[in-house]
Each structure stands twice: as C-alpha cells, then as structure tokens.
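[Q] Does anyone have a clean structure-token version of this?
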Amino acid sequence: MREFNPFLLRHLGIYYMLIASFYNACLGFLAKILSQNLHSFEIVFWRNLIGLFIVLWAIKKAGECDFLRGGHMCLLLFRGFIGVCGMAAFFYNIANAGLSMAFAFYKTAPIFTALIAGFFFAQKLRALSWFAILLGFVGFLLTAQPSGGFALTDIVGIIGGLCSGAALASVHELRKYYKANSIVLSYMIAGALLMAVLLILGELYPKGSGLLKGVKFSFPNAYEWLLLGLVALGGYYFQLYLTKAFAASKKAGIIASISYSDVIFAMIFGLFLGEALPNFIALCGIFVIALSGVLLAKQK
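[A] Here you go.
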C-alpha cells in the first residue's frame, strides 16, 4: 500500500490552493491576450460554455453526480450565480485595469469570505479578524488611490471581491453536501447563461452605458479558439482545485489567505505582457491586503 507524505496530508488544502492560484494566474494571462479582440464578457461566456462540456465529461467519467441530490439547490445555484458575477468583474478589470491591478482588486475576496462566513455560517470572528478586515479595506484604498472619486474599475473590483468572497464562503458550506464536480457544474451553467444574456443585451442596445458599454459579440478566429480552449480547461482545473482546497480545510479564512499567491504569479505574467509593476503605494496596498489575509489565517 502506497504511503503518503504526512506533511502534505496535513497541508493538503494549502497545496490545492497553490495549484488553483497558478491556474488562475494563467487564466488572467490568456484573458489579457484575448481581450485585445474579444470583450471580457464573451471570454467568460466561452470559458464557461466550453468548461461546461469539460465538467460534464468529467462527471460521466466518474460515473456519479449528486447535483440534484444534495438537498441544498438554492445555495448551489447562488454559488454559481454569485461566482460568475465575481469572475465577470475580474475579467473586466483584466481587460481595462491591467493584469496585476485586476488581481489586486480580486484579492479583496477573502476579506468578504471571512465576513460572510462569520455572519451567515456561524464562524466566530475575533478581534484580530476584525482588525484584519479593516486592514484589508485600507489596503484596497492604497491600491486604488482614489483622487476625486473611484474609477469604474475600482468599483468593479470591490464588487467583484464581494461576489467572489460570497462564492468562496458558499463553497466551504456546500462541500458538506456536494462533490466538487457538482459545485463546479453550477458555476459553469450560471456563467454560460448569464454571459449569454449580457451579450444579447449588448447587441440589442449597442449604445449601452456602464458595464454594457462596448459589449459586442465577435466570433473567434482559430488562434482565439485555441486560447479559449486553454482558458476553459484551466478554468475547470482552477475551480476543481479551489473546491478541493476548501473541502480539505476546516476554516475558510486559512485557505482564502493562501490564494494571495496568484498576485505574485500575475505580476510575473504581467511583465511578459509588457505591463509595468504597480507604483510603490499600490504595492504597499497589495502587501497590506495580503497581510490582512495572513492575519485572518490566524483565526482558529
């Protein structure tokens, strides 16, 4: 019988999250390239539609699916809807705010995860946790550096963090009732449907404002199909390992803090794309956000 490394088994959730973070950074890198010709909503649409077939194939291969048998369909559907809202905001900022800054805004998600886990899933928040949450919002202000008001990308970033935080907290609860593939399936279905609606609205109202401004469907070429396929495949594995990470952990905040590693991966990929590193104040803000996550991980 094969023996497993005891250290790896004790830190399996952290190991899974590091893998998920690397896949997430790869997705951002590919999405940035695709955003030169495709709208970010269309990228999310194809990512989830192709990913839907991938997860259905995985479910068929596994020979079991508890999607309709878990008994918490409302929470499962909520996870799918709120998760894709967070991802759409994330991809929007990748296209419009730059790779490293988009990830910096996205990393406010664990702060909201801790808040939601405390208020809705009865995880007690201690004084250190409240301090860490406040510190995280200070980090966001340092990163955004608002002068005369927040930019649209700043607003989208904080909304995306809230949605992603709610999705992460719901995954931690759903792991008690559903297998990983079923949770990922809800996300893929919601993403394909919601983005299809937004793309249709963009075609019907080409002069739309706000997030619908400039939304247009463009059929991908052969090279873009290849990148979209890689995005979808990477998206499936990101969601799978993300789900596995929370399933292997007893505390949502601990694993959420490890997800900050994808900021480092994103900065490296951003350099390959010719993007400059964030300025000193923004880097300090990213560090403060990461520090808040580490402090949240101290909660027992």
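[Q] Thanks! Anything notable?
[A] Residues 222-247 form the longest helix (26 residues).
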